[in-house]
Write a structure and sequence with these properties.
Blueprint lengths: L1 H11 L2 H39 L2 E6 L14 H6 L6 E12 L10 H4 L6 E4 L6 E4 L7 E6 L15 E5 L11 E5 H6 L7 E4 L2 E10 L9 E4 H7 L7 E6 L5 H11 L5 E4 L2 H43 L1 H9 L4 H38 L4 E3 L7 H8 L6 E3 L9 H17 L1 H9 L2 H7 L1
């Protein structure tokens, strides 16, 4: 305690010099802490964007468009190669086909799509863009086959199944004559759990009824993947959903998939463009804040070392007197190290305090606010059509909410202590070279 009081007393003797050093050091530490906080916020924002957009990569037979069909099936052997790609967390193979026979009636017809008579006009969701809709039009029933191991199958766009009645497939039902119906399809055909119906000469039992929250999704027929292959005589799969382990790995995984199938064989669809538009400003801010944070730490280190050098040179006579009366190098060095630590801690606390009011302002300057990604109801007709078939979404980035944690004080104290320890290496070396006789003689 005496050492600390003596250190404070020595620093107070030269208030201008000490104040200038503390202010410059506080600004440097504050800049580093602000950028550390902003960088952490950008990392969280990128993670949030990644979770919102998802890490799904869809591989479809070339020429397919959602439930509209087309294209040659994807070879099963090539699908198996997907599991060996680095950064792939899961692979969900799917067969998608249509049934337009007499055994089941589709709940989606011209009326449900908004037709108003022969030659009438339907309207894309969002109220923009018309298209002709004949009154006798009825969509075929979309049939989808999933591996029973797929616990959360993606139906169309981002629609997921939620079992309302009955159950999902078990692991031993990969080729069983069972089916799960969308709630609208079941209601249209008066089917319930336990009912049976026939498709292509095969009798199937309804073991579950699901809801997806989308009209197209709720009109589908879902069966085990090998059952669909057998019933509809399909060799291969029509689409695969590959889930990357992180949003930053999506492009790498997609490139690896394109090496397995050529453009003529498969279409590889990712959210790359959407993600790049949204995160470009955030990534830029993260990189800038990281560089500024490093610069702040470097400047703080230079300032503290420079202040110690200045302090030692100005008090060389005091050092000589202490050594002349028998003080050890270690004791004198400890005194100067304590003074350096006091200055660094005061500067660190001030730097932490200025972080609170300035971090959000700095973050706002680094982020280009208002970045948006197109989705249903926005952009061109193709984008609205994708929204109509269940995909897409509007995502906006209106800056980053930078919450400064009280832990910033702990970071400030750790940074200050670290700087003081590094800077204290110089006094030990300098004091050992001071010769009391030469110092007193020159004075």
């Amino acid at each position: 305690m005496t050492l600390v009081r003596r250190s404070i007393r020595n620093l107070v003797r030269s208030p201008l010099r000490t104040g200038a050093i503390v202010v410059i050091l506080a600004v440097s530490i504050g800049l580093a802490l602000i950028m550390l906080t902003v960088h952490g916020a950008t990392e969280n924002q990128l993670k949030s964007i990644g979770e919102e957009i998802g890490t799904e990569i869809t591989v479809r037979s070339a020429g397919t468009f959602g439930a509209m069909g087309g294209g040659e099936p994807l070879d099963d052997d090539k699908v198996d190669e997907l599991y060996s790609i680095e950064h792939v967390a899961d692979v969900q193979a799917t067969i998608q086909t249509q049934y337009s026979g007499d055994s089941l009636e589709s709940p989606i017809d011209a009326g449900s799509l908004g037709g108003r008579g022969m030659g009438g006009m339907g309207r894309f969701p969002g109220g923009e863009g018309d298209f002709e809709m004949p009154t006798d039009f009825t969509m075929p029933i979309t049939v989808m086959g999933f591996d029973p191991a797929t616990s959360d199958p993606v139906l169309m766009g981002d629609a997921h199944m939620e079992i309302a009645e009955g159950r999902y497939f078990t692991s031993n039902e990969i080729d069983a004559d069972v089916a799960i119906l969308g709630v609208d399809l079941a209601e249209k055909n008066d089917l319930e759990v336990g009912s049976q119906f026939e498709i292509e000469g095969v009798t199937l039992e309804v073991i579950g009824i699901y809801e997806s929250g989308q009209s197209f999704g709720d009109a589908m027929l879902v069966m085990p993947i090998e059952t669909v292959q057998r019933v509809f005589e399909i060799d291969g799969v029509t689409s695969v959903v590959v889930i990357a382990d992180d949003v930053s790995s999506v492009n790498t995984v997609a490139d690896s998939i394109r090496e397995i199938w050529s453009e003529d064989e498969a279409d590889v669809v990712t959210a790359e463009d959407q993600y790049e538009r949204i995160n470009s400003a955030v990534v830029s801010a993260g990189d800038t804040s990281q560089m500024a944070m490093i610069a702040g730490f470097i400047i703080a280190g230079i300032v503290i070392v420079f202040s110690v050098v200045l302090l030692m040179r100005q008090r060389v006579k005091e050092i000589g007197i202490f050594k002349a009366i028998g003080a050890s190098n270690w004791r004198i060095g400890l005194q100067f190290s304590a003074e350096t630590l006091v200055m660094a801690l005061v500067a660190g606390i001030i730097g932490a305090l200025i972080t609170f009011p300035l971090a959000q302002s700095v973050g706002n300057m680094l982020i280009d606010t208002g970045t948006t990604a197109p989705g249903p109801g926005g952009g061109g007709m193709a984008e609205r059509a994708m929204g109509f078939f269940g995909g897409g979404g509007v995502t906006s980035v209106a800056g980053i909410d930078i919450a400064v944690s009280p832990e910033v004080f702990l970071y400030a104290l750790l940074v200050a202590a670290g700087l003081a320890i590094v800077a204290s290496m110089f006094p030990t070396w300098y004091i050992s070279r001071v010769k009391p006789a030469e110092v007193l003689r020159n004075e």
